Amino acid sequence: MMQLEIKNLSFSYEKNQQILHNVSVSFQNGSDDQTSLPTAIIGQNGAGKSTLVKLLKGLIKPDQGQILQDNQAISTQSVAEIARQIGMVFQNPNDQIFKNTVSAELEFGMKNLGFDKMKIRENVAFVAELFSLNDVLDKNPYDLSLSTRKLITVASVMAMDPKIIIFDEPTIAQDLRGKKALSKAIKLLSEQGKIVISILHDMEFVYDNFPRVIVMNEGEILADDTRERIFDDEALIKKAGLDTPVAVKIAKLKK
Ligand SMILES: Nc1ncnc2c1ncn2[C@@H]1O[C@H](COP(=O)(O)OP(=O)(O)OP(=O)(O)O)[C@@H](O)[C@H]1O
């Protein structure tokens, strides 16, 4: 079993302007309770979602509180150690793409982590197939659409085989085909026993793919529960300034 635990985390970018207030939450794999399910983090713009996942990845340091991976503080781990354990797909793919061919980009993270050639070839083939990238492997990512670039970053991080994978808004700019590939990837990662966490604004995608939902509001966790209970709670959804997924609205009309 693997565990990621956040204890009493507070954070501010600037003095006297606290962004996260005493946040505690945990994620794990391999148990049958809801902390092991693929988890969506939802909430209005500015709620603190991106800040929370940056802290999880060790990109910024908390003012107070702890982030523990298997009972070890991530603050004691090197950047390389964290990279091996925690993969993160940023909101904007342009922040994450460095190479001038898709295949070099897919290989890049694995090379940095010292994967052997056979494994690199195997993983590139797997993610290229999963995200329909075989026809563009020799292309420059910047000659491709934003949606394809985003899928390339998801594929690159998956290829590195991290134990924990965090997505920041993976569905931005995606059409139905892209969303289907992402759904398949999330299911697969979960079946492989990875901890899957994603920030999302697309409530339909949340409802279809994430059995556990964390609602953030003004730097706090308002609720952490199953998607059914979260979206059934109209007062909660309203307080957090969110929408109810269409499927839930229809089910309620039928009642
Ligand atoms: N680098 C920064 N410096 C100062 N303030 C920041 C910085 N990044 C974010 N903030 C502020 O922190 C607060 C939380 O931002 P954050 O990006 O975590 O929210 P979010 O819930 O991810 O929003 P969004 O859905 O728009 O991405 C906001 O008020 C934002 O203006």
From TrEMBL:
Domain ABC transporter positions: 4-243
Chief location category: membrane
GO cellular component: ATP-binding cassette (ABC) transporter complex
Location of this chain's protein in the cell: Cell membrane
Family according to the record: Belongs to the ABC transporter superfamily.
An example molecular function term from Gene Ontology annotations: ATP hydrolysis activity
Membrane-topology annotation of the record: Peripheral membrane protein
Pfam name, any one: ABC_tran
Name this protein carries in UniProt: ABC transporter ATP-binding protein
Domain of life: Bacteria
